[in-house]
Structure formats: C-alpha cells, structure tokens
Amino acid sequence: MDDATASLVAHLESIGPVVIAYSGGVDSTYLAYAASQALGDAALCVTARSASMAASEAEEASALAAELGLQHLVVDTFELDDPRYVSNGSDRCAWCKTHLMDALEPLATEREATVVLGVNLDDLGDHRPGQEVAAARGARFPLVEVGLTKEQIRAASSAAGLSTWDKPAAPCLASRLPYGTPVTMRSLGAVERAEAAIRALGFVELRVRHHGDVALVEVPPAEFERALASRDEIVSACRRSGYSFAGLDLEGLGSGRLNRVLG
Known about the structure:
Blueprint: H1 3-15, E1 18-21, H2 26-39, E2 43-49, H3 55-68, E3 71-76, H4 83-86, H5 92-111, E4 114-116, H6 129-136, H7 142-145, H8 150-159, H9 185-199, E5 207-211, E6 214-218, H10 224-229, H11 231-240, E7 245-248
Parallel strand pairs: 1-2, 1-4, 2-3, 6-7
Antiparallel strand pairs: 5-6
C-alpha cells in the first residue's frame, strides 16, 4: 500500500462507517477501494442512476464494484422531475446534489454513517455549486481532507491495481448543454448516442456539446487529424443521434468549457 492510500485509509478509519457516492470514475472508485480497506462492510457504495448518467457508465460502475468486491447499491434519482434542474441555470449542479443527498442520507442514517464524495483538490477551483450543497448537508470530502490531487489519485490507483487509474473524466450528460438550454430526455439521449457512436470509432476522450441542432465535438488536439480523417463517420454518427449539423471544436477537449459564460 503506497503512502497516499495508507494516509487515506487511516483517515477513513477515523471517520467511521461511510456511504460513498460511487460513479465508477477515477476518484469515487479510489475512495471506495480505500474505504473498503479501512472499514470493510461498514463502507457502502451507492450509484445514483438517472437520465443524466450514461447507461454504459452505470453498467461499468456495477461491474467494477462486483470485481472489487465492494458493497454496492444502485438507487434511482429523478432530477428531470424537478423544474429547478430542468431549467439548467448556473445552479443546476446544486439541484442534482440535492437529489443525490436526498437518496443517500436515509441510507447513512440507517447505518449511522457519514456520506462521503470523491471530490479532490483540483475540483475546488471550478464552478461546482453542488459541492456546497453536499457539504452544507453534512457530506465530507476525504480526498480533499488528506490533500490529494487528481494526478496523485491516478498514481495511487495505478499502484493499487485499479483499472480506473487512467479512465477519462466522464461528467454527467447534462454538462454538455449550455446554461439556459432545458435538460430533457431528448437532449440527453442525443448526446449519449452521439458520444457512444464516436467512441465506437476509437476515440477515448471526447465530448459532444449540445447546441440545438448542432453537435460540437471536442477531442484532444492530438486527435484532430484522425477526427478529420473520420469526418464522414462522425457526421453520420451525429445525424443518426438527432443532430442536423456537426462541427469540430478547434480549441480541443476542455473541462468546464461551458462555465465561461459565468465570467
């Protein structure tokens, strides 16, 4: 066990029983792994399944939990029934975390446990109102509390033999919609289908930003040449997914791109 993991395990032992918001991504998987090492059956991983989570991500989370022998539960959340979420204001993430905490808190109460989220130090600099909601409701961020960055978490995950160590970030599908564009099953479905089809072409890191009838595809600049060579297939994938037009973002793949409007 490397030093970072040993420190996190010791910290989780001091927290006691936990309910982990588990998406199957790099951070939540590492947190779940460390919690299982620290607490055994007193660590429960919970995946919140909703329309804004790609079906493939939910399936991968369940498969990985089984592979790692984690205590795992899937619960459904229904953000699309909440007009505050659907309106997609700059506080959308706050309403998402509200529904997540509504689902996790009863489980934590039953187990006399603390809700923990896989937030790392690098996450603190972006616009993430959901973190404030979760913290206000008593959730803790153990990765932050022991001072771990994304790079350190990837390195520790690799040392622990976790297959997620190099997994690309997979934020919720709603993050592909500009603020003010209503979040609907139709728009989320279009993004999910387009991204899955382009990923099937061999692109690992990508986003499809939803701009009405236009799908703006983001890939790393190093992949531009291959994207242009696959232009016909990418355009076809976007049109099959419900878009009339497809474009390549010449700035390349970027996290939090749509937050620029917040100035």
